[in-house]
Amino acid sequence: GDIVSMKINPSGSSYALLSERGDARSLKIYDLWKSETVLYEFETKSLVPNSVCYSPDSKSIAVAYRDRSVQLYDTKTYAPKSRYVLPYVAEDMAISDNNYFLATVSEDKLRVYNIEDGTSQNGMLRYEAQMASPITSVTFSSGSDFLMISTQNGLVHLYDTRSFQKIDEFDSMGSAADCDFNPDNKYMAVVVNDENIVLINRFDRTDREYVVNPEGGISDICFVKDGEGRVFLLYNTRSSMTYHYTGDLAPNYTLLLEDELDMRMQEWMRRMEGETMEDYNLRVNDQTRMEQML
């Protein structure tokens, strides 16, 4: 059948393939390392799937159906976890890595729901917008601080998830068929056309790297880490899945410094062995906390 959508499990172990033949659709989970090995097949006769996405922690997979519902399933057992009803059929979706937000797309419309408790049938609408062009992709950053949206007119839009105000925009991105943040949120990857991906430094637009694959067919991208913590850009071509090593990208030093400071503060704030509460309060207070951060 014809491929409707393919989403890669962030764990790098499998991928979901939504395809159609005539009026019938199928949704199957394939092993990424064993060719044509089906791990699970969803029942699609009573509910017709329209789009699919994984949660960043790989624990859930969301399936949007043509009855306007979205069902979250456990990726180990594929048992249903929670269900939401939308005002439209979702064509694309994304879940924030804190499992707080579900972003849904229908043509040029975007709706972001708060699904934190997983109990509401409708979720709580947090933000909605209508773009100037149909939306091609939506994704959240690591830490869930940012939302990235790409549109058919070659634009990539960045939003702050605290206020959902637009904070940046990138143009001339070609088809902008898909997009993703690298793990430290310094670089973003955008599918420019079916043979090219561009990696852009969000803070310095002149810092760019291009991934070119003449085989073509590139439509979906996803940053993944291997067992040693190395970061790869995983993407599809017409006949294969390809890993592109991104270790040559400069790290986000600001984030590294913040992590280092946080680690030191946590170590400093621990009560030392044999330290009385009075001694601890003399050592750890608002004044000494400020001195420690300087």
| Sheet with most strands | 4 strands, antiparallel
Mean pLDDT: 86
Shape: globular
Oligomeric state of shown chains = single chain
Notes on the structure:
With 294 residues, the protein is mostly beta strands. Helix content is 11%, strand content 47%. It has three helices and 23 strands. The chain has helices at 253-269, 277-283, 286-293, and strands at residues 2-8, 14-21, 24-31, 38-41, 49-54, 60-65, 69-74, 80-85, 92-95, 101-106, 109-114, 124-130, 135-140, 146-151, 155-160, 165-170, 179-181, 187-193, 196-201, 204-212, 221-225, 231-236, 241-245. The strands form six sheets. A four-stranded antiparallel beta sheet has the order 1-2-3-4, with no helix packed on it.
Write a brief structural summary:
The chain has 294 residues and is mainly β. Helix content is 11%, strand content 47%.
List its traits:
294 residues; mainly beta; four-stranded antiparallel beta sheet; 3 helices; 11% helix
SSE topology:
Blueprint: E1 2-8, E2 14-21, E3 24-31, E4 38-41, E5 49-54, E6 60-65, E7 69-74, E8 80-85, E9 92-95, E10 101-106, E11 109-114, E12 124-130, E13 135-140, E14 146-151, E15 155-160, E16 165-170, E17 179-181, E18 187-193, E19 196-201, E20 204-212, E21 221-225, E22 231-236, E23 241-245, H1 253-269, H2 277-283, H3 286-293
Antiparallel strand pairs: 1-2, 2-3, 3-4, 5-6, 6-7, 7-8, 9-10, 10-11, 11-12, 13-14, 14-15, 15-16, 17-18, 18-19, 19-20, 21-22, 22-23
